[in-house]
Here is the input.
Amino acid sequence: MELRSLGPTDIKISPIIMGTWQAGKAMWTGIDETEIKQALRQAYQAGITTFDTAEVYGNGYSERMIGEALSDVRPNIVLASKVFSNHLKHDQVIKACERSLKNLRTDYIDLYQIHWPPGSFGHAKVALEETMGALNELKKNGKIRAIGVSNFNCEQMQEAARFGDIVSLQPPYSLFWRHIEPQIRPHCLDRQMTIMAYSPMAQGLLTGKFGPGHQFEKGDHRTANRLFEHENYQRVQAALDRLRPIAEAKQISLGQLALAWVIAQPNTCAIAGARNAGQAEKNAAAAGVVLDKNELDRIDAIGRTVTDHLDDNPVMWKW
Here is the structure.
C-alpha cells in the first residue's frame, strides 16, 4: 500500500486507516474482543499502517485493544488518538494523553487530535489557546508528534492554528455525507492539511448490507443517524441500486467502491472500521482500486441524489 504524507509532516500514513470506534464496544452491539484483535492484526498484515482511536471509545477500551494487538509492531505503525471535549483544560489534556499512552503501550502518539470543539455536548468551553498550549507542550516533550482536530469548522480551525501547527482534520465524509466540500475542504487543501474521513462507508450504508426496513439492535448508536431516517433511507436504497453495477463491473464490493471514491479525493484518507479480520482485509484491498474520471463522475452524481436533499447540519446523528 502506497503511503501518503500526513499534512506537511514527514509522518507517512496509509490511505486506508483502521478505525476503532467499534473496538470500544460502547454504542455498538455484537462486538467480540477476540475478533477485534484479529481484525487489527489482519489490517496490519494487509498493509494498513495507521490506526485511529480515542480516549472516549469505551473509556480507553479501544486504545487498550490496539495496545494488546499491535504493541510488538509499534515501530512500523502510526497511532492516532483523540482527547475528548470534557478534557480540554491544560492539565486535563496532559493527563488524558498520559492515560492514552499507557493504554496504547507506547511512549509517543504520532497524531493527537482534539475530538470535538470546546463546548461540545455541554462541556466547558475552554479557550483553544489553553488546549493548544498543552498540546504544544506534549509535542515539545516528545509525547506526541503532530496535532490534529476533529469535527471542527473553518473558524475553529483558524483559531486553533493561531496557537500551533494543525496538520489534519477528521470530519464525517462519504459519498452520502459531503458537508465539508463547499468550504472546509478548500480550507484544508490551502493549508496542506490531510483530511481523515470518518464514516467513509456512511456507517455501513454504503456496504449495501442494510436493506429496506432494517432495524438495529437496541444500543446501536446508528438508530440516531439521520441517513437512516425514512425519506433519506429511501434515497440511499435507490442510490445503492445505481452503484451496484459499477462495483460489479470492477469486481469489487460496494464498500470497496465507497472507500476507493473517498481516497480518490484530494488529500483525503478513509478511516474504515472493521469487526473481524475479513472486513479488515476487504477494507485494505480498496487501496488498490483505481477509478477513472468517468467512473468518479458517475459515482459523484449518484451520491448527490442523496446529499442534495440533506440540510446544512454537519452532525450526522440526532444526539
Residues 4-208+253-290 form a domain with the TIM Barrel fold (CATH 3.20.20.100).
